[in-house]
Specification:
By secondary structure, this protein is α+β, with helices and mostly antiparallel strands. The radius of gyration is 15 Å and the shape is globular.
């Protein structure tokens, strides 16, 4: 069982985000990430802001990494509802409330 202090300790690593020591995987293994960038007006600065604003109350679960080379690692999963502008034809945008699942 994970407790609030462990989550806060994990979120205390936000300095790494501020220092730019994070990356968003945009490859065939992360189709959800690709879709997010394709369908909504979002960039790395927006993602950085979302990550920096995560709180202990956004925490969902801690799971073991399923990737064979990283199965010794644990992933902390957070959920966050945010407003993003959805891209539509003819350069119009629609404001949408979306739910994000964030694992890192």
């Amino acid at each position: 069982m994970i407790d609030e202090s462990e989550i806060n300790d994990y979120l205390g690593k936000k300095k790494l985000i501020l220092d730019g020591k994070f990356r968003i995987a945009l490859n065939s293994n992360r189709l959800t990430n690709l879709s997010l960038f394709d369908e909504y007006l979002i960039n790395e600065e927006s993602v950085k802001s979302i990550l920096l604003n995560l709180t202990v109350y956004d925490f969902c679960e801690k799971v073991q990494n399923k990737h064979a080379n990283f199965n010794h690692e644990w992933l902390y999963v957070f959920g966050k509802e945010i407003n993003l502008m959805k891209k539509v034809k003819w350069f119009h945008c629609i404001l949408s409330l979306i739910s994000l699942k964030i694992s890192f």
